[in-house]
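Re: your question from the hallway

Yes, I did run it. Sequences:
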Amino acid sequence: MDEIKVINKFLTKLAYDKSSLDLKDDVFFNKKNNLVISTDTYVEGVHFIDFKKPKLVIKKILRSSISDLFCKGVKPKYYFISAAGNKLLFKKNILKKITNSLKEEQRKYNIILAGGDTVFSKKITITITSVGFAKKIIYRKKSLINDDIYVSGNLGDSFVGLSILKKKQNTKDNNYFISKYYKPDLPHNILSCLNYYASSSIDISDGLLIDLDRLIDRKKVSFILYLDLVPISKKLKSLLSSKKLKKINFVSKGDDYQILFTSPKKFRNQINKFSKDNRIRITRIGKILNHKSKSKIIDETSKEILAKNKGYLHEF
Amino acid sequence: MDEIKVINKFLTKLAYDKSSLDLKDDVFFNKKNNLVISTDTYVEGVHFIDFKKPKLVIKKILRSSISDLFCKGVKPKYYFISAAGNKLLFKKNILKKITNSLKEEQRKYNIILAGGDTVFSKKITITITSVGFAKKIIYRKKSLINDDIYVSGNLGDSFVGLSILKKKQNTKDNNYFISKYYKPDLPHNILSCLNYYASSSIDISDGLLIDLDRLIDRKKVSFILYLDLVPISKKLKSLLSSKKLKKINFVSKGDDYQILFTSPKKFRNQINKFSKDNRIRITRIGKILNHKSKSKIIDETSKEILAKNKGYLHEF
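Structure:
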């Protein structure tokens, strides 16, 4: 059983307080106490290749955790680390590296270590719990027909980085791509934009299409997405053209940690202005349609792409 | 390096917000938001023997987590589960057992699942984060000279249970002891007693003497503890006498999840009354002395026990 089935079939019935959002959003949100919490577990060999680069691995998993709050329009304030690890993790010089790396993250994102736990285990498994305070959050599944679909930053760089690390790809910009994999640029300055204009939002951890499918309520709406508009970096553009690779095979592979959100058409000008004023790339890439339409992706030649492949999207 | 060294040397400098209590108490307490959080990780083969009894294992680790809040005088309200596990964990019938077991715990302690994460991993590693709301908590290290030392419930049963599971012990009451290991009786009705009368408190997870040492501020105070007064069950008493075993080798082995607390002498009558009115065993077992005295344990024959053995206590 995959995670979603496990949650739907068993755990949801235990989560009958509405703060848990039926375990179907990125976070727990307790309105009465303005409390927002997200918790994620990362396993060696599954979520990160190994622990040979502790400074980078710890940055990646911390960013992936606080990303859940950012994408809901919430500033993370505290984080907890629970680390199960072997002697490799608890060596002095490794701990020093991790501490310094976390210190850099704390400065960059203005967050503070609040607690945690360290235990011994053969495989390294790390759980990060992020905590923030907010009067409201942006939910999933609240987009309306005719809303625009936006995404922050660029997509695909992180996947190229991972492919390089796995020796499945080689480029002239290896270091650039690897750095995007380990240190995704969280769009943390986008929060007020989300809070003013977004009707729904999610962070892209598993892939543009999978996460877009999670963002919308399929019973009520569908989407049209223009592949041509999906933002990628100059370096990825140059890689695609030099090796004649297809864009669709790169922009929906996950690990991007950019924010995907919807917003009513009337806010287009404001979002454009916000993007320019704050120098954050925010790109309109599609539109929400009624549920009678089939969700579709339009490729560069105006053809519809059948996106049944699970790598692209669960199912339409 | 052990956990305490890791925390002191590296992590404390990252936790400069006072809510983290310097990572030296059982919980995170954010006064401004009345927020109390505890997070703990449990590893197969380390914190629980194996996962052959999922219903019991999940009860034990959940209770061990919420115990951190109870012992601070705080009612847990929500819990998060992050589970890394193999196919054994994510089988339908196992998940059903876990769900039913959690449902029982939710009813017993009036708590609700709030979120979590499930990921694949060879070894089973589970992190539980417990959340409660409170205007104040009972801290460690706030006991004063002449305070009494109290403990709730009985000690030692859980250790016998673990020894039986490890085939190192065999008794006529095996089921009783094993049940105390898996399902420690959390003294959840003691909260108002703690909030009215306790000057400091901790839950006994690692062992009476180790946790007593953590409870006090060794620079300011010491303790005297009367072994004779340490409460044990009738079944443990009968085991000790029939096999001629020493009490000291059973009551400080941990996994008890009873609450150890200190209180000024003037509250003795009130605590006695609370204990009777609420039918909770609360036993006075010692006293806080000034730091010039050496901490000591007095055995049944009024002799001082040298408790240098790490199994009893780190060091005096």
